[in-house]
Write a structure and sequence with these properties.
By secondary structure, the chain is an alpha+beta fold. It has one domain: Molybdopterin cofactor biosynthesis MoaD-related, C-terminal domain (Ribosomal Protein S8, Chain: A, domain 1, 2-Layer Sandwich). The chain contains three helices and five strands; from the N terminus they run H-E-H-E-E-E-E-H. The chain has helices at 3-7, 21-30, 74-93, and strands at 9-17, 34-37, 40-43, 46-58, 61-73. A five-stranded antiparallel sheet has the order 1-5-4-3-2. The chain starts with a helix and ends with a helix.
Length: 95
């Protein structure tokens, strides 16, 4: 990466609730990523990881949460983030 490319590095965070990690990893592969570690994926111009968050208390229930972090070149991150937001919305609607 040149110094010019580094200046275009961006980070997007997407909070995930009650979504299976294996499904999120599958979506990241669908968008062109290759797993590098158990919860990390690398694609052309981007990489993503899933970080555990504290569960949220909703009444007596505890809702599992994770944070999807996507970093890399601006255009690549925007494409992956858009794809992932669309997939998360579809999962929430039960599609």
């Amino acid at each position: 990466m040149t110094s010019r490319d580094k200046s275009l590095t961006v980070r997007v965070e997407i909070e995930l609730r009650v979504l299976p990690r294996f499904r999120v990893m599958d979506y990241l592969e669908q968008v062109g990523g290759v797993p590098t570690e158990s919860l990390s994926v690398r694609g052309d111009g981007w990489h993503a990881s899933i970080e555990a968050l504290e569960p949220e208390a909703v009444g007596r229930a505890r809702v599992p949460r994770d944070l999807l972090v996507i970093e890399g070149q601006e255009a690549a991150v925007a494409r992956v983030a858009s794809f992932m937001r669309r997939k998360v919305q579809q999962m929430r609607r039960g599609r």
